[in-house]
Automatic annotation (TrEMBL):
InterPro entries per the UniProt record, alphabetical: ARTD-AVP, Poly(ADP-ribose)pol_cat_dom, WWE_dom, WWE_dom_sf
An annotated Gene Ontology molecular function: NAD+-protein mono-ADP-ribosyltransferase activity
Any one GO CC term of the record: nucleus
Compartments in which it is found: Nucleus
Domain WWE: 10-92
Signal sequence region: none
Chief localisation class: nucleus
Protein's name according to its UniProt entry: Poly [ADP-ribose] polymerase
Origin species: Silurus meridionalis
Family: Belongs to the ARTD/PARP family.
Keyword field: Glycosyltransferase, NAD, Nucleus, Transferase
Length: 294
């Protein structure tokens, strides 16, 4: 049974049911429909979803798993990550559709379904989001509500780089295999920078090997790329183009978050023995996890 679920609408009388078994599916980023049970992180089963759905097909429920909160809207057939705003379509069917399903792990990483068509010969492309779209509104709300940024947003671009996306997906699977887990923590984090760095970041990703001489803000916690939990903090490192154009640039990146250790200026790569055990529950870890800005 799943933990911490609650209903956001009042109960109604249960719908009339039959002896047929209904299955619930979610649409993965690869575009393939998978049974709810096929997601190893999902603590809720088709039978449990069906029970709640039959009681009220207009219900909205919220449940917690793997450190995230999810909202399921039966009426809209949507599953939403409350923290990141990521939306997955869901559906119910009388057929298990096992013959039609595939395992994403056996496929080359597919791009997200909301990406737009682009010339495959281009290394990357930046799509200016329409301010009236739900994607724009979700990013804007995340920047303001979770990122605590008070400044107005002039525009939002979605950066599509197929090569970097595939590398990210494969690295994610590799880390899950190394850690022996079916899930790994991902967060949306902010990175402030200047206009001169935008092209290289979009093309090659964030460069952790830039020397201290080239990195304007040094290495207070170690040598690498810095991301901020809040956009208001990353804003300090986002430089205006010139005195006449005060537009600043900031990246909102999907980042795989691993173990924690205390940083120092000369740190190049964290020592495996220095990692703080997540099972220890130490006061040092609590301070790092709950009070971090970078």
């Amino acid at each position: 049974m799943f933990a911490g679920w609650k209903e956001l609408l009042d109960d109604t009388e249960p719908m009339d049911t039959s002896d047929s078994s209904w299955w619930w599916f979610y649409q993965a980023e690869c575009g393939i429909w998978h049974r709810i049970e096929d997601d190893p992180v999902n603590p809720i089963s088709s039978s449990e979803l069906e029970m709640l759905y039959l009681r009220n097909p207009n219900r909205i429920i919220i449940f917690s798993t793997a450190g995230s909160n999810f909202r399921i809207d039966f009426h809209g057939y949507m599953k939403t990550n409350v923290k990141t705003g990521q939306v997955q379509k869901i559906k119910r069917s009388l057929f298990t559709e096992r013959a039609a399903r595939c395992k994403c792990a056996d496929l080359a990483p597919s791009v997200p379904t909301y990406w737009e068509h682009m010339d495959p010969n281009l290394p990357f492309k930046a799509f200016n989001l329409n301010w009236q779209t739900s994607e724009y509104n979700k990013v804007e709300n995340y920047v303001k509500e979770f990122g605590l940024l008070k400044k107005p947003l002039r525009c939002i671009y979605r950066i599509q780089n197929i090569d970097l996306w595939e590398l990210y997906c494969r690295k994610k699977k590799q880390l899950m295999r190394i850690k022996g887990t079916s899930d790994i923590n991902e967060e949306w984090l902010f990175h402030g920078t200047g206009k001169n760095n935008v092209h290289n970041i979009c093309l090659y990703n964030f460069n952790c090997r830039i020397s201290k001489k080239l990195r304007k803000h040094g290495h207070i916690l170690g040598k690498g790329t810095y991301f901020a939990k809040h956009a208001a903090y990353a804003d300090k490192y986002s430089t205006a183009q010139n005195q006449y154009n005060t537009t600043q640039i900031m990246f909102l990146a999907r980042v795989i978050v691993g173990n924690y250790t205390e940083g120092r200026p000369d740190l190049v790569k964290p020592d495996a023995l220095a990692y703080i055990s997540h099972n220890r529950g130490s006061s040092t870890e609590a301070k790092l996890v709950h009070n971090y800005k970078l």
